[in-house]
Amino acid sequence: MTYQHLGLLEQPYDSLYLIPVGAVLHVPSNYPSSPPLLRRIANVLKELLSTREQQDHELISRFTKLPSHTFPLAIVSEQQAYMYAIRPDYFLWKKQKPELTLTPDSHHFDTRNLYSLSDNQLRNYFHDLLDSYVFAAQLPTLSRRQWKEKARSAYSQNPFIRLAAEKQDVIKAVEITNRSMLMGVLNPPEDVAFWRHRVEIVLRPYRALPPDATYSACNHPIQVTIDKESPMLHIYCETCNYAYKYDPFEDRVVLQEKINLAQAQKRILTIERQFNALAEGTPKVLAALRKLQQIQRWYVDKEFPEHAGDAHRLIRSLQGATFPIAPVEPTLLSLQHVKLATIDSLRFVQPYLDMSKQQLDQQLEKEQREAFQYQTEDTEKAVRFSTKGYTLYEEEVDVIEDYLARDEQMTFHLLIQVLKGEATSKVRTLNLHRSPIFGLLRPWPKKLIPQAIKSFW
Known about the structure:
The protein is of the alpha+beta class. It folds into four domains: 16-138, no CATH class; 144-268, no CATH class; 282-376, no CATH class; 383-454, no CATH class. 48% of the residues lie in helices and 11% in strands. It is built from 19 helices and ten strands. It has helices spanning 3-9, 35-50, 54-64, 88-94, 119-137, 144-156, 159-166, 168-178, 189-207, 261-280, 283-298, 310-317, 332-335, 345-348, 357-378, 394-406, 412-420, 425-429, 449-454; strands at 16-20, 71-77, 81-86, 109-110, 222-226, 233-237, 242-247, 252-254, 383-387, 390-393. The strands form three sheets. The chain has a four-stranded mixed β-sheet with strand order 1-2-3-4. The chain has a four-stranded antiparallel β-sheet with strand order 5-6-7-8, with helices on one face. It has a two-stranded antiparallel sheet with strand order 9-10. Strand 9 and strand 10 form a beta hairpin. Helix 2 crosses helix 5, helix 3 (54-64) packs across helix 5 and helix 9 (189-207) runs antiparallel to helix 10. The radius of gyration is 36 Å and the shape is elongated.
């Protein structure tokens, strides 16, 4: 039975309406000829169609504009017929675009390999496909653009998406704060660890959503097709690489993950309350942050010399730091706006917690006078190494070498961190942040410190 016999001369099966389509897509040479499979498909469809109600037959016939009690099947052939089921989307959109035609590369084919299916698999496959046709036939006549708009609107109205939008400030604050260096100074540490563990659980369904579609539908181009597994529309955004289902009869969206909404509402409230409790339980940190915020506002537009005392070091440490507009509060929504350039600022500020601006001004002036005096004295000191305006003196090398003589475990990389004054977890674990050489070359750019070390080590 040739392609011409099947497609053009006659319809040999009562239950099938064969539609010839152009040239072959790709027919492997080892595939068997198609008439045996056609007979199997015809028998399966005859059985399935006989069990359908008359209403279904009428719906499918009006939808496809084909004779009643028949089902369409595409035949693509060159030397032998090769069959593809036609997705109901083709007939759905053809209502709005009468010129829409099937081509060998058409995305309206369901490319399931029908040759590989057993009789039971074939029966289940066409049973589901018939359900999809009945579903599509009942859809209101709307353009594809209108369906996209309705799906987007329903996505934004999904209860979980609405919850995410309502709690957007909390969700973002949790994400920011969870990565903040402040988490390392809140107490007790075991409660901080527990809170972080809960965050991973609570935020997982929000993180599963695309960044552009977490709080409302994205604005990217989307594809609308008939879902293969349920009587719904399948919505897919290639940019987000995310899909969801839309029920056009109930005007609702079904997300990939089933969410217990009451549980999600309770959990997001709980992690905010737990963080607030952690912050309230660390009053010393809060006091330090408030003072840092105040000092930054006092000297926001002023510049200070590099080589000076502790008060200058404190103010320089605030370069690049950010704080909320309002005074810092022990809450998640307030502390999310705190970003320190270095956690050492909390330590640097301790001697100045009770100082007024006038007192701190006096301290800064004193340090500047002392710095000038030391600078005068430095001109008489023996220099070991100098580069780009930074000088390492022999007496500083003596201090470093004296310490290294007692610490044989010190590595080159670790020494750079210690001299720069970086209180990393390893530095703190080894108690090196209390060593006499910690921060000795703090004013130096880190990339220059290795050159200084190589001058004596």
